[in-house]
Write a sequence for this structure.
C-alpha cells in the first residue's frame, strides 16, 4: 500500500456511526506517533470530544490539538499547519460537509468499528460508498473487542478479507483503562492503572501496522 511522497501525512479517522471508538483511536494514536514526529490532532466533530479530552490534561501530551468546525477550513489543513502528521477526528455523519471536504485530501483513512455484525455491516457500507471510490489507502480497525470473545474479532477480520477490505491484524480490546484515561485527560500511553499496559500495547501494535503502510514516506 504505497503512499504518495508528500508532507504532511493526513490521517482521517472515520466512521459514519458514533460510539465506535473513533475519538479514543485518534487521541491514542496522536500520542504514540508524537514520540517520533510532530503531530496535530484536529477535532472536526461538533461534539468536540477530542478537544474535551486533551483540554483537560494536567500535563503536556506531546502533540498539538485544535478545533476546526468550519468545513472550508478543513479543506486548508495541509496549507494552514506545518506538522509532520495531521490526525482528523471526523463527525459521525457520512455525508457531512466536513467529511466531504477532508476525505478526498486524506493520505490514509482508518475506520474503527466494533466487530458486532450490525456495526460491521454499517462499516462495510461506509467503505464501499465513501472510501473506496476515493482510492485512498485505508484499513479497518476492530475496536471494543471483548477479550473473552476474540473469535468474533477474528471472524470479522475474515469477513473483511473475503470482501477485499483491508483490516489491521491488531485490534483494540475493551478495557476500562480507555474510559479512565479519558476522564483524567490523558491517552492510555500516559495513564497508569489496571490494564493500562494491555491498552497501550494494542494501540502500539496498530501504530506499527500503519507505519509499515507509510514506509515510502520515511
Amino acid at each position: 500500500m504505497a503512499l504518495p511522497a508528500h508532507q504532511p501525512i493526513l490521517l482521517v479517522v472515520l466512521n459514519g456511526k458514533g460510539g465506535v471508538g473513533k475519538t479514543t483511536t485518534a487521541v491514542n494514536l496522536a500520542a504514540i506517533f508524537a514520540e517520533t514526529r510532530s503531530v496535530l490532532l484536529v477535532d472536526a466533530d461538533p461534539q468536540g470530544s477530542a478537544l474535551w479530552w486533551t483540554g483537560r490534561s494536567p500535563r503536556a501530551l506531546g502533540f498539538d490539538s485544535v478545533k476546526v468546525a468550519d468545513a472550508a477550513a478543513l479543506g486548508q489543513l495541509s496549507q494552514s499547519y506545518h506538522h509532520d502528521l495531521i490526525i482528523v477526528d471526523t463527525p459521525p455523519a457520512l455525508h457531512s460537509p466536513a467529511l466531504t471536504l477532508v476525505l478526498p485530501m486524506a493520505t490514509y483513512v482508518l475506520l474503527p468499528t466494533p466487530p458486532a455484525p450490525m456495526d460491521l455491516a454499517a462499516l462495510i457500507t461506509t467503505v464501499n460508498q465513501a472510501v473506496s471510490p476515493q482510492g485512498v489507502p485505508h484499513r479497518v480497525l476492530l475496536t471494543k473487542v471483548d477479550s473473552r470473545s476474540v473469535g468474533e474479532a477474528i471472524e470479522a477480520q475474515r469477513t473483511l478479507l473475503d470482501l477485499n477490505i483491508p483490516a489491521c491484524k491488531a485490534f483494540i480490546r475493551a478495557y476500562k483503562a480507555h474510559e479512565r484515561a479519558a476522564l483524567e485527560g490523558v491517552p492510555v500511553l500516559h495513564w497508569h492503572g489496571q490494564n493500562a499496559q494491555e491498552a497501550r500495547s494494542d494501540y502500539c501494535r496498530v501504530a506499527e501496522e500503519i507505519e509499515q503502510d507509510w514506509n515510502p514516506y520515511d
About this structure: The domain at 9-113+176-217 is CATH 3.40.50.300 (Rossmann fold).
